[in-house]
Amino acid sequence: MALIVKIGANLRDFDRQMRRVTREISYLGNKLQGVGKQLTTKVTLPILGIGAASTKLGMEFEKSMSEVSAVTGATGEEFDKLEKLAREMGSKTSKSASEAADAIKYMGLAGWDTSQIMKGLEPVLRLSEAGNIDLGRASDLVTDSMSALGLTTEELRTYLDQMAQTSRKSNTNIDQLAEAMIVAGGTLKNLNVPLDEANALFGILANRGKKGSEAGNSLNSILINLTSGAGQAGKAMEELGLSAFDSNGKFKGIGNVLKELKEKLSGLTEEQKKYLSCYDRWKNSNRYIKRLTRWCRKRI
């Protein structure tokens, strides 16, 4: 009898132990299930999201490079160089590899070959960063303005450095300066106006409220009035015995011409000025002449 009681007690104790173990296993199972859900939400899904985003970026890059190939005609080794360059710029600048590839495409559209693109891409990327300009827009502005001015890629860094300096020192920005260069570039090129002089002129015009294409049109008008020898302006220059060109037929430079013009006008009486063809136009432009002449005195 005592043995039966002892065995029964042991069985009841065993049953209690088993129920406790079962509860603990169930609790542990619920905990593990919760951890599993958290891992899915906080780890697995984000990893999948990163993978999807990476796949999308890769597809965008491949699409951009396909367009580069179509526009530039680059194949084989040349294409590999451009692809490597785009990836490199994507890793060392704030722009993505796809954006760099798009910039290459715009350069190709402007007629730049692989060698020119290799030299020009990073400066254009840096310009885009410095001027906070969309990279495609920056590429267009640079290639179009350089084409208008007749510049080569060897002159690219100097050109961009001077534009950056002008934008810092005057009331304009790189985007507006490039727009002005595009409009007036042909005239500046034909007259062999130096880059630093062109930038200084646009800086002065910007400080007077004329920027972008408006500044380009204004400078075009000034240069044509000074150099064409036609119309009232040409007649007035002739009456003053003033020429925009030296004895070798070379343009004296706008600073020198305006300085001479100011000196000629200062030697006239008010009565004489009344009879001077187009004097009113010169008088209305006097605020520009004064500023340009002050700039000229610093250089001559």
Describe this structure as you would to a colleague.
This protein has 300 residues and is mainly alpha-helical. It has two domains: 63-148, no CATH class; 150-300, no CATH class. Helices cover 81% and strands 0% of the residues. The protein is built from 14 helices and no strands. The protein has helices at 2-72, 76-92, 97-109, 114-131, 135-149, 156-169, 174-190, 195-207, 212-227, 231-240, 254-266, 270-274, 279-284, 286-299. The longest helix is centred in the first third of the chain and has 71 residues, at 2-72. The chain is elongated, with a radius of gyration of 36 Å. The N and C termini lie far apart (129 Å). Mean pLDDT is 78; it is low at 2-9. It holds the Pfam family PhageMin_Tail. Keywords: Viral release from host cell. It comes from Paramaledivibacter caminithermalis (strain DSM 15212 / CIP 107654 / DViRD3) (Clostridium caminithermale).
Poorly predicted runs of 5 or more residues: 2-9
Number of helices: 14
Strand content: under 5%
Output mean pLDDT. 78
Q: In percent, how helical is the residue content? A: over 70%
Class by helix and strand content?
mainly alpha
Distance between the termini: 129 Å
| Number of domain units | 2
DSSP E strands, number: 0
Keywords: Viral release from host cell
Pfam families: PhageMin_Tail
Protein name: Phage tail tape measure protein, TP901 family, core region
